[in-house]
Amino acid sequence: MTAIARRLRAVPSWQVTLSVALLVLGFLIAAQLSAEGPRVRYTSQERVPLVETVIGLQSQQNALKDRILALRAQIRDLEAQMPGSAAEERALNGQLEKARIASGLAQLAGPGLLFKLEDADGAVGNDKTESLVTSRDVRVLVQELWLAGAEAISVNGERIATTTAILDIGNSILVNNAYLAPPYQISAIGPTDLYRRISSSKAFVAYVSSRLEPSGIKLSFAELETVTVPAFAGTVAGRYIRPTVPSQ
Amino acid sequence: MTPRRRNRLTITAVAVILGFLVVAQLRGQVADASLAQQSAQDLTLLVANLNTQNEELRGEVATLEQQLTSLSDTHARGNSAAGQLRADLDRIQGWAGLRAVNGPGISIRVAGQIGGDGVEDLLNELRNAGAEAISVGGVRVVPGTVVAGAAGALFVESTVLGGTFEIRAIGSPQILTGSLTRAGGIVAQLSVTFPRAQVSVTPLDSVAIPATDRDLAPVNGRPSL
Fold it and tell me: Would A242 be classed as within a structural domain?
């Protein structure tokens, strides 16, 4: 016994730390691999294929969005280095860059706020749905942030653009047709006093006191020096709109 | 490199991988657990939404790939790309609200007592139905535009909306009209929430929507990669 204890004491502490870390690492890798499919099988039989289909489609959606962002970056780089570089082309490139930034096609970083909206811990009253965050809750918060002076907003990483709809789907929401599960993190870039502005809005105060507090829905916030709002990764190709006066 | 330094680096590398996996695992569990709680009906709806969205995203990928190929050819030949740049600018500015646009769509006449939240619900439904450009009382709706105020005292940006105002939207007239006026749709819901308001929808072959007056250039945010 004393020999074993002596040998254990002789093991360097970094080896012990590394062994524990590798053990946890192995556990997590195994958990991650097993999560790729079979984890959802605890749902009822008829929902299993549907859940698996949704996971597959979400994965496709993420890959398509990554591809769109990569293509836009390649196009932007290529446009910037076009030969000839006549004054006209330089001017057009400048306008394009401004339009991309103004329209949400570029990731932005700046001072701002993070809000987190979470479902209530338990059902309040007879109606459990009252204690769940709905798309309307998220929309109200987004609208109040706009009115307070926010200049870029995202919900769980989905940029709010001109065509963004926020909808209910069961107990969760869709933003830009991406499925988002609670809690919802709303990131907003704006003036450094954005929180003071929104918290002095009568409509926001009324929303908190009449909707959030009675239902038990939790709203927390953080003021940050740097908030990152990702670029919009959806479709910009309009099938119906045409500029009234095309560029000359 | 000393053994001590090597050990530290090894532990740091393992800790980084560990942290990444913990976050990935937690995120995955939240999303999957949420999906498992959805009803079969909601999951079916979600599948339909994701299919539609993915189809649109594939269309966007195809458009961008074509644009990239065309630009690469122009670049290789050393030609001017002004025409392509203008087309790209038209597309982005039109979508973003920086340019006046027209196209087929609908006109919605709203009269009577309706709150800003009701109008915002209507705009949200229009976006969901595929509206590509929207205006309210002649004001282009862009990120940051909110119709606010109580019934009878609505405003959008600096424009006060009177007792009767018009919402215009460009998109498929049939789909937009059908989405709004279907049984149980947003027009029916608003008639219950705001019984003293009247909402009528008219499909049109051509709708004109102005550019925004807002300066959309960020003041506090800066582009970051």
Answer: no
